[in-house]
Amino acid sequence: MYNISSHINTDKIFIVKRSELEDRFDATFYKEGFDFLNFIRLSKIARVSGGKRLPEGYDFSNEPTNYRYLRVGDVNRDGTLNYGDFKYLPKDVYTILKRYEIFKNDLLIAIVGATVGKVALMNIETDENIILTENCAKITLKDKTVLPEYLFILLQSPLIQKQIQLNYIQTTLPKLGLDRVGSLYIPPIPSIKIQNEIVKVFSKAFNINKQKEAEAKAILESIDTYILKELGISLPEQNNTLQDRIFTAKFSEVVGGRLDPLFYNSDLSYFSSGVYESLAIGSLTISLKSGFGVGRQDQADEYDGIIQIRPTNIDEFGQLIFDRNIYVPRTLLDKVTPLEVGDVLFNNTNSQELVGKTALFAENKSMLYSNHITVIKVKKEKVLPEFLWMVLNSYQKHKVFYSLCTNWNNQSGIGLELLKSIKIPVPNIGTQKTIVNHVANIFNSANRLKEQAAEILFEAKQKVEQMLISK
Q: Which of 119, 186, 272, 334 could bridge to 278 as Cys pair (CB 3.0-4.6 Å)?
């Protein structure tokens, strides 16, 4: 019998029998209270091996070859593979890395970085040879008593994903060891007949989910066309011929400034060619301020902390997402001003392609923001925050920031002064409201479809998990 002091929160206390302790002694691993009775280790049915990075001094091939390299970024969150994005390898590099090749029906799981636990099934029919990155593990089934499609579904289940979250090492970059992958507990393997039933249930829901998400994405992609039309902006058709990739700049425009050609080949001039006057962002805003960085050791857990918004919290259409959050101590609220409804969140530092993606803060809870986010507070009598958010995302989509940003150490960024100087077309407030309301209706329609898609997949995963546990 244990007596706990009255001032201690009992929701944060749990007890584990000594006999249940294995090779882990950290409390977070045991707090979920998993019951693994009769479960088996993944290593009993499959072999786990790692990938490999390119040898020092070698690079990808600029020309197509029969050899490819799969990176963790080529794996989508839904487990599909972007085969067309796989990098080509020279034959001599493939020869060096041949032992790290992957084959059809191998399963892949991300083991490094923010996407730890992301799973894919290698189901591509190809004559090309594919090498796996060191940031993924390869899982190869030992025999045909387990369907690869079944294991793919199993590894995505909450039952396994929670174990993965508790198993990876909490360093600057989360890392899941190959031994930890092999030691994951899985339910006893059911018959092939039952495996096929589970695959059928999940596949049907997955296909409906993808269809609805595709419909939602098509609706959202219409936003940019609508905005440009309303602003009277006509962008030139992209022509990738050599002649059209050559341009000139006067020496007087270059001397004393930047020399990178992308900076002088921006499409920004076309955005000033519409029917409305263009004004510098600095003249439309009250303030622009970047957030603060925190190391892993300074972060908090979900129960004691508050979300710090980072670039990964902004999706491709400028909506805030909260599927992978970083938390900081609540005590920081005494030192740092939290975000306010109507703040425009501009991603100032990222890979070159992603710099400039922007979100609008509309949450009814306290949140902070990282040093990779610049918060823009607008003069609402001149520009609506919703309108600025939409225009900045249109600029990002058309690679305006890609051209303007400064590059260093595999990162790119837009500084505060440069951001202030960028001009945007500014119609009157009435016209802005019309545009904002129309776009809001588009978002609402798309989000309804996405919610339906998520609900269908969630219900399927619940049904599958029940089937997994009960068999």
A: 272
